[in-house]
């Protein structure tokens, strides 16, 4: 069993309130969950209206499949025009760790 995680540090565009921030972050999280069957949530910078951290995790029995899903998730977030992807942290864990 392998577990892969991604943590995205995002800079949001023209956002002036936490309500506007939620209206940008929620659709990204929902699309990740819907398209790739991953667990995703806003995991940090929740009190800052122009920054967001989204974390996701996926479990697989095959590292190739795991890497493919993580790559697709990263491309999806990077392609969103309303956010700037500042950094991505990727971790792979096995049941032997």
TrEMBL record:
InterPro entries: DUF503 (IPR007546), TT1725-like_sf (IPR036746). Signal peptide: none annotated. This is DUF503 domain-containing protein. Gene3D superfamilies: TT1725-like.
